[in-house]
Specification:
The chain has 3 helices and 4 strands. With 96 residues, it is an alpha+beta fold.
Length: 96
């Protein structure tokens, strides 16, 4: 399974758009870390969406794309509209 994290927008958009997406291959993870990642993805994918804040400006948008043997899942959230489950997944991915 390959997991790709891309970021868009925000106050640092001019800097972050030049950064490549973060790609994580579960083949490089321990079995325990892979299981944890799968649980986090499942939780984020089934969580109810957070309510958007129309007053939010310069918010960062995060896209997590999961390629599990050709089955693609895309999860998207922003700083102003992010479920707790997506936030946990995002933190885990950023720490890797």
């Amino acid at each position: 399974m390959r997991v790709t994290l891309t970021t868009h927008g925000g106050m640092a958009a001019a800097l972050t758009r030049r950064l490549p997406p973060k790609v994580l291959d579960t083949a490089d993870l321990s079995p325990k870390a892979e299981a944890e990642l799968r649980e986090l993805i499942s939780a984020a994918a089934t969580a109810p969406p957070a309510a958007a804040n129309p007053a939010a400006r310069d918010e960062m948008t995060y896209t997590v794309t999961v390629d599990d043997d050709g089955e693609l899942t895309t999860l998207t959230a922003s700083d102003a509209a992010m479920s707790a489950e997506f936030s946990t997944l995002l933190s885990w991915l950023e720490d890797q």
